């Protein structure tokens, strides 16, 4: 209240008087032919009065500062730390053995050829994005010989990486699907519930991670999805589950598929790590292709952030596999209505790079080699960390480090242990115990092993 | 239960996987009821144009600049910026709010190089997905923090404005803007509507080069609008998609905004680099909200970021790098200013030529508005039926509201266009 009063006092009487007289002066000025203005008398007789609010400030004065995003906030904290020993195992962005970000050679080459092409323009893409990119992306995830593609049953739209694909898919479902509930595994990427809530869906949960085994709680998963109302949407991580790194086996995937189809649950896949998990693009797409092969429908959010290192370019695609080509056409037309009021059409640069690579057999092959190298480095870091903890005799079973797959390891460390590691060892990671293996290298791995050992034995 | 038994019995079968018969026996699609969506009126025009095999076809539909040969243009300053960027920088995620360098340069352009508001850190600003993305973020922000507020939108406006605030679930009203008889501004009705709106209403204003009409208030009129806004305590939200592109001078095109700032308004502003830097497909833009003080600006920015995160996490880096490279380098910025003036001058020249041609053809109508209006678009005043004739008989493509994209007019097609317009309007 005091602050509000202060504002009034600062805006003195003479200020308001000055403004009013300026207004009168302007309104009383001689009319120019191109417009009519009201005369001084008209003004004085009019209903305009100085609004009591005029002296006050912003209409957004009551907006409170939002908390830091838990994941991106880790990097913010890391950047503030002045210690030369600091290690960033927060955000899932790949780092080389030297701890540097990586732009793939094949991406650099693709970008150069785009820039050197004088005939290339930067016009608006269609609302659905770069057509060639869309076709190639669908082939990449579903397989070139996929019957769904051959039968033109897939509606694919370019979106802003995985996040954008999930959001557009979510908004489409909120508008056109008969069920609002979306079942999300526990735990999941922190942004998932927010994306779906903003889209107009209702996030529910199903059991996924078993802390006691640091593996999959398959029984819990089956129970929870069996109890979900028919027609509910189910979010599935296609491979390399984020944050746990725990994936179903192929046999378990088959059982999940049968369960979902039997209960008419709609699968919504999030594929952020194709090729990045095992090193093989086809192997990492197995779960998705399983579902497509049975002829049923599904949604698929695809990201090129990690597997092509295109993070900031925001490249991804949403595909909706439909029962018929006719339905796919109508679905695509409705997706445009979701996208247009959000950002009109997607960004050109990253999609052009992807299309350049995917359409060329040589560049495609080169990409698979670089991709496998990234995946292999991470797998070797897993092995090294496991070996280091074994060598130290760190109490506990650490085999989950080598059983889990993909960029992240769910260490099983608790909030207090994590805080301890940050404080004492300058290890930056999310408080749920997740570490990004991509941030590890032979230089900083010993420090992490020390930190884990200390945390587990001290706390 | 029986179902679980079925699952475990399947689990023991180790043989080659075969899709279980009947499991995916969904009789029909979940999405079979989905209606085909109506085509976007603006982007649909280009689609139709591309499909037309006629050699005479002219596209004066979508607002993308063309040179005098009818070709799209990549500015030299943009090509140079890209050469500097490629291979030298990584592609890591930008922060949620986008590139701080790009934001800094965008604000200088909109608020003034030496703006005190920038010095005092009173502006909450985030990188956005061009103008659309900036408007959408603002609409979402308005919905979340002032859920009872509405938005007043001029008639007519860019069609997508309605979609944006609708999808953000912010109720809409309209205010008078275009005067069909004079093909100019309906100033008195506009002022009436501003006066009659409840105090503290939110208004969408086109900062310059109104889309689709090309009709802008004069400087004098902007001052009067600003004063009336002040007495009503209305919130001015500026959509500035054509800074530099309208008059050829970015400072001049920002005049309306500067008038409002001088009058003490706390404005919101959506900026786009799609047209003035030719970065269309890169989706480069900025949303800014002027706050009371630095603390509030920090809070507001943090909340804008929270709205971007569940939409796309963080904005695309490439376009941002181009903008900040150009605006941050005095030589490149100078080149850009020359190039943007070149584009504006060509359009102004085409306006003059089109009008002259129509007058020479002896058209009984007045075509003054072609040169009175400013920016990329000319609101010709033609009816939908006349537009249809232009398309069907002359292969000339434009939106059915009679809006002509002057950027699509060239010395090569202006005569043909004038003749066709004369034929359908005489």
UniProtKB/TrEMBL annotation, chain A:
Note: In eukaryotes there are cytoplasmic, mitochondrial and chloroplastic isozymes.
UniProt organism field: Rhynchospora pubera
Sequence similarity: Belongs to the class-I pyridoxal-phosphate-dependent aminotransferase family.
Enzymatic class: transferase
SUPFAM superfamilies attached to this UniProt entry: PLP-dependent transferases
A Gene Ontology cellular-component term: mitochondrion
Name of this protein: Aspartate aminotransferase
Keywords in alphabetical order: Aminotransferase, Pyridoxal phosphate, Transferase
InterPro entries hit by this protein: Aminotransferase_I/II_large, Asp_trans, NHTrfase_class1_PyrdxlP-BS, PyrdxlP-dep_Trfase, PyrdxlP-dep_Trfase_major, PyrdxlP-dep_Trfase_small
Complex formation: Homodimer.
Regions that span the bilayer: none
Documented EC number(s): 2.6.1.1
Molecular function per GO: L-aspartate:2-oxoglutarate aminotransferase activity; pyridoxal phosphate binding
Cofactor(s) recorded in Swiss-Prot or TrEMBL: pyridoxal 5'-phosphate
Aminotransferase class I/classII large domain ranges (all copies): 86-452
Any Pfam family matching the protein: Aminotran_1_2
Recorded superkingdom: Eukaryota
Reaction catalysis annotation: L-aspartate + 2-oxoglutarate = oxaloacetate + L-glutamate
GO biological process: amino acid metabolic process
UniProtKB/TrEMBL annotation, chain B:
Keyword field: Aminotransferase, Pyridoxal phosphate, Transferase
InterPro entries assigned to the protein according to its UniProt record, in alphabetical order: Aminotransferase_I/II_large (IPR004839), Asp_trans (IPR000796), NHTrfase_class1_PyrdxlP-BS (IPR004838), PyrdxlP-dep_Trfase (IPR015424), PyrdxlP-dep_Trfase_major (IPR015421), PyrdxlP-dep_Trfase_small (IPR015422)
Cofactor: pyridoxal 5'-phosphate
A Gene Ontology BP annotation from the UniProt entry: amino acid metabolic process
Signal sequence bounds: none
Record carries keyword Transferase: yes
Gene3D superfamilies, A to Z: Aspartate Aminotransferase, domain 1 (3.90.1150.10), Type I PLP-dependent aspartate aminotransferase-like (Major domain) (3.40.640.10)
Coiled coil: none
EC numbers: 2.6.1.1
Catalytic activity: L-aspartate + 2-oxoglutarate = oxaloacetate + L-glutamate
GO molecular function list: L-aspartate:2-oxoglutarate aminotransferase activity; pyridoxal phosphate binding
Major enzyme class: transferase
GO CC terms in record: mitochondrion
Assembly and oligomerization: Homodimer.
Other noteworthy facts: In eukaryotes there are cytoplasmic, mitochondrial and chloroplastic isozymes.
Family according to the record: Belongs to the class-I pyridoxal-phosphate-dependent aminotransferase family.
Protein name per the record: Aspartate aminotransferase
Protein species of origin: Rhynchospora pubera
